[in-house]
Amino acid sequence: MKIGFIGLGIMGKPMAKNLLKAGHELFVFDINKDSVADVQAAGGKSTSSAAEAASNAEIVITMLPNSPHVKTAILGEKGVLEGIKSGTIIVDMSSIAPLASQEVEKACKAKGIKMLDAPVSGGEPKAIDGTLAIMVGGDKDIFEKVKPILLQVGASAIHCGNIGAGNSAKLANQVIVALNIAAVAEALTLVKKAGVDPDLVFQAIKGGLAGSTVLNAKAPMMIDSNFKPGFKIDLHIKDLANALDTGHGVGSPLPLTSLVREMMETLHADGFGQDDHSALARYYAKVSGTKIGK
Ligand code: NAD
Fold this sequence. Notes:
This protein has 294 residues and is of the alpha/beta class. 54% of the residues lie in helices and 14% in strands. It has 14 helices and nine strands. The protein has a six-stranded parallel sheet, sandwiched between helices. A three-stranded mixed sheet has the order 7-8-9. Strand 2 (25-29), helix 2 and strand 3 (45-46) form a beta-alpha-beta unit. The chain binds nicotinamide-adenine-dinucleotide. Nicotinamide-adenine-dinucleotide binds next to helix 4, strand 7 and helix 7.
């Protein structure tokens, strides 16, 4: 199949490479020329704009940082809608505000183009393995059409409801992950301060009710003081800001999310925005005077 792929960052690059491996013809675009060259070397065809990438395609996939980038790439000058043929489907896999997905879909619909929102969870390792968890919003029949392609970059693809529902599901994912990481950092700082080895506590509790994927992935990073991303604090701030905006819009207060967002803002202000989100441990080191790691 001919696929336009726009946004070749940490996630988009391995996803595009997996689609090439699956035998698709890819027309790729990113404002960063180095990323384009990398995917071109793997067999992708370089294009000079989102419009050109879309003009060749039966499906256009976007994997961009946030709502404004998606609006620019799809609705802006030399954007997808300028080049796209009727019948082509747009699948936005970026994590953006559900309301923004609805706005962009409305503009696409006005031109007779169908769009899905299909954000992912799993991070770079699962993008490389092609085992992402994908949550999708939009027309069910369009979802069924593109599902086989989604399952070439993911291990699961679940239709969650109308357009924007994929990004609502992703916000839930990001709230749960952020609060879970904060709980791990808070608890491991407590035991360190109480004179108990955080690594032994991790080993002791990981098989019990406190065990989680987040605990297994992030406790070792905190214990090693290794905050190489992974998923950056600045991107998680973006997701929590989208969760808070959405919560305020629908009348669902998010007190815990608000607190953890402020912790992340503190880290951003201290210059740690590009660290992995496990760097929430740095926040606790700052307020307690004790590091979890050695
Ligand atoms: P990234 O910053 O590494 O990549 C984004 C890419 O988009 C960059 O290469 C940038 O040059 C390009 N770009 C920006 N504006 C553009 C435009 N107008 N036209 C063309 N290209 C443009 O980000 P990422 O980590 O790949 O994340 C992408 C999305 O996936 C985000 O919404 C993020 O929240 C989400 N996500 C990331 C992870 C992760 O672990 N990194 C996990 C799950 C979901």
